Amino acid sequence: MKIALVYLPFWPTYSPPLGLAYISSVLQRQGHEVKIFDKNIEFSKNIKCENIDPWSDNVLNKNSQRSFFNETTQPLLKKEILSFIKELVSEGYDAVGFSVTELSYYTTQYMSSLIKKLFPSILIMWGGPHVTAKNDLILADSEAGIFDVAFEAEAEETIQEFFNALKENKPYYSILGLICNHPENKKFIKKKRPSINYKELPFPDFRDYPLNLYKVKQLPIMMSRGCVATCSFCTEFLTWKSYRIRTAQDVVEEIKNHIENYQIDNFIFCDSLINGNHEQLEKLADGLENVACTWTAFCRVDERLTKNLLRKMFKAGCTELLIGFESDSQKVLDLMNKGTKIAQNQRVLEDAASIGIKVHGLFLVGFPGEEDHDFNKTLKFIHKNKDKFYVISIGNSLTLPPQSVVGMLPKKFNILIGENGEALLDNEGEWTSVDGSITPLIRKQRLNKLRNYLNSMKLNWVPQQYVERNSLQKLSLSIYHLFLKLFYTIKL
Ligand code: SF4
């Protein structure tokens, strides 16, 4: 089959997404003719926006609103999308697969509907984080016939089984991970798939990406999927289900392969954390010691992340670590089920900074149970270590991701709940503690205090662009982490 894999606006344009590169590799291995089209980056360069730039940091997030899409985005993209459809048809593509995120949902829906209307024989496939997270929307789109099949979560195995079934003319609707309407009785079908065998995947293929157009000359890479920790505010370990890791040797080979094929020697590990397995991390550092490359990664504080290991990582090209410190109150860390100690936070920060690794500190303000004196400890910790941080992420007012432990069990976290047992939210989607110790106002005041504090210390902090927004647009710290990671790991 001739298959187009498409990424539509809108998304940041820093570096190429990883998900489609994996999907392309597995489909090529199956014998299909595949091409990736990153229309997000291409349109961002070609479309001249006189009044508003939908890709700019302070506008980007608005693309998740239908009204913004209808009034602003669609008129801008209409001509380009029609001409892209003509290109796909003239080149004889049999199937088009879209990677769908919250910000590209309306554009994807628009283009898919047009294809279905004009060229109904073309197979339309959807995948990506929005497909996995938004059951209700996907059900409606499936019933409306906007797509033919969609793939939930990790799509690499599901999509291969789907094309095998098509080739052998066998029914495909019982494939795990597939979302569709039954071809005969039209019943909506959605079957969850267990974690896939990540180690068996071929290297992701970036050759179709216009690598010179991205803001940063950097490639995403993944050594593992899932997380070994179970922090209650986070969705990573639930999204990826089990923790799986490739061998360090395989990752070193992939890095060498990318350097040779794409002449790019700068990488971002988009794993939930790079140190889920310290033995493999050390082997990775050993394997990269003589490879001329630089890399950045997320990690968690851990006693096994020793100064010696950090030194090896630095020698192996690690320039920056994004470390989830979250708080300097042991009580709050325990409430978060963080599994770390404040003394470890201090030790890892000192060791990493003294070696020369840039520390991007991640903090979470206003967790249920955090009191003023807990928050003040965090302020003191940052102040005491201000010279050791390269930048600080402070997120925004903590929302409750429905798939996180705190979102699923609000009562356990002393959050006011309604009759249905779910968190009682105000008009702005904000929650309050039963005893009033944390309210939306208190969280806002603490965040403002922290921002002012960081400004007074002239310490860089992010995400500045998410600060002055209404409740629908703001991102919690957990979502912000996810945002950073999804940016690199968009799956078909
Ligand atoms: S916050 Fe970090 S360490 Fe904790 S579960 Fe999420 S990814 Fe894992």
Automatic annotation (TrEMBL):
Cofactor(s) it depends on: [4Fe-4S] cluster
Coiled coil: none
PROSITE patterns membership: B12_BINDING, RADICAL_SAM
InterPro entries the record matches: BchE-like, Cobalamin-bd, Elp3/MiaA/NifB-like_rSAM, Methyltransferase_Class_B, rSAM, rSAM_horseshoe, rSAM_sf
Pfam families named in the record: B12-binding, Radical_SAM
Protein name listed in UniProt: Uncharacterized protein
Entry annotated with the keyword Iron: yes
Superkingdom of source: Bacteria
Domain spans labelled Radical SAM core: 213-451
GO molecular function: 4 iron, 4 sulfur cluster binding; catalytic activity; cobalamin binding; metal ion binding
GO cellular component, one term: cytosol
Species annotation: Halobacteriovorax marinus
Keywords tagged on the record: Iron, Iron-sulfur, Metal-binding, Methyltransferase, S-adenosyl-L-methionine, Transferase
Domain B12-binding: 1-173
